[in-house]
């Protein structure tokens, strides 16, 4: 039996598609109750990002980052700078973003240096976003 040390971007993409499907299906009910369709839209964006990564396109990494930035803007618009409320909406997406970025950085595939540097910068941005939400919640 063979065990790999790191997951590949395609395995990460499959998980991202599954998470996106859960967001889209479960978030599809929320507009029926009179709320914003954010979770459905985010689920579709996650599926799109995962599909691009599955096809070995670097645009999947960028698509996920843009989805996170859009989620951050929507969350700040919705709840303001309240750290606890922002954590509820963005913590899991930030952790997923860190995991995706680390997968791109550590993969053994033919990913170029500029994409690896961009993935490192994105991981730092996700970490800073999570850290600032924690600081805002505590202080």
End-to-end Cα distance: 49 Å
In terms of DSSP E residues, the strand content is: under 5%
Q: Classify the secondary structure makeup into a structural class.
A: mainly alpha
Mean model confidence by pLDDT: 87
Number of strands: 0
Largest sheet: none
Number of helices: 5
Rg, please? 16 Å
Q: How would the global form be characterised?
A: flat
Q: Which stretches of 5+ consecutive residues score pLDDT under 50?
A: none
Number of domains: 1
TL;DR?
The protein is an all-alpha fold and 139 residues long.
Give a written overview of the molecule.
The protein has five helices and no strands. It is an all-alpha fold and 139 residues long. It has one domain (9-138).
SSE blueprint and pairings:
Layout: H1 9-27, H2 38-54, H3 59-79, H4 83-106, H5 113-138
Which terms would index this structure?
about 75% helix, about 140 residues
